Amino acid sequence: MTVHIVTDSASDMPKALTSELDIAVVPLTVRFGDEPEIVDGSISPQDFWRRCQAAPVLPQTSAPSAGDFEEAFRKAGADGDGVVCVTLSADLSATFASATAAAKALEGEIPVRVIDTRSCSMGEGLVALTAHEAALSGATVDEVAEAARSAAGRTRVLAALDTLENLRKGGRIGGAQAMIGSLLSIKPIIEIHGTVESESKQRTRSRAMQYLVDKVKSVGPLHRLAVVHGEASDVEEFTEMLEPLAPASGIIVSDVGAVIGAHSGPRLLGVTYQTST
Q1: pLDDT confidence band for 128 (50 / 70 / 90)
Q2: Which of the listed residues 120, 153, 186 is the one where a domain comes to its end?
Q3: Can you list the alpha helix ranges (DSSP code H) found in 60-136?
Q4: DSSP conformation class of 164
Q5: Which end of the chain is more exposed for a tag (fewer CB within 10 A), N or C?
Q6: Are residues 171 and 99 in the same domain?
Q7: Integer Rg of the chain from CA
């Protein structure tokens, strides 16, 4: 059995990578006020941030429907193969619930396993890559699902934000709420553990970058490493700082998409790593 991998657009995986590996991506959507919905991935990062700057309100995000996932599952499993779907955290979106409903609708027709990564952005993306790797090895659908669950437990997402305003207005601030009111020029570091949690506070952006590098250095050998950013002018500098820590597979650099960007705000600079054990 060949197992196919499906994820959602909040994984922020580069399109060239998902195309090369034949990983299906089910998009979320964003909406600016009363304007028509925009499919995540159909707008360039530059255009998205330009619209955010001009818009009087933050864009709203919506999860895919169960029907969207069912269509993707049917296409991926058209030859009777199994499907493993990895989604962003169920605590952050209804995406996992939609994917689960679609899998249930296909019971007895296509074997589908849905994994809540309890992560987002390239944290979710790295789990999808591990699932793909397991599928290539000839693993069964249940073995691929277990590989994804294991990878989710070994994957961490940390990010330096320029502001918590987007998270606050979007209602997804979780344990980072305590930072509000005391930021001033502080650069908040957040971590994703199902929800968005406060990890630390750094005085300057340069200190925030060094802090993230030191956190990665402290975990030892890595299996995968990725950098994500929201039109951050210093992303190349940050990536170079991480180069000595890169695993053999190198560093994946990705833009945050419209959905993650709507909640993180501009100039986000994040790192995602996955340990071997």
Answers
A1: very high
A2: 153
A3: 66-76, 95-105, 121-136
A4: S
A5: C
A6: no
A7: 18
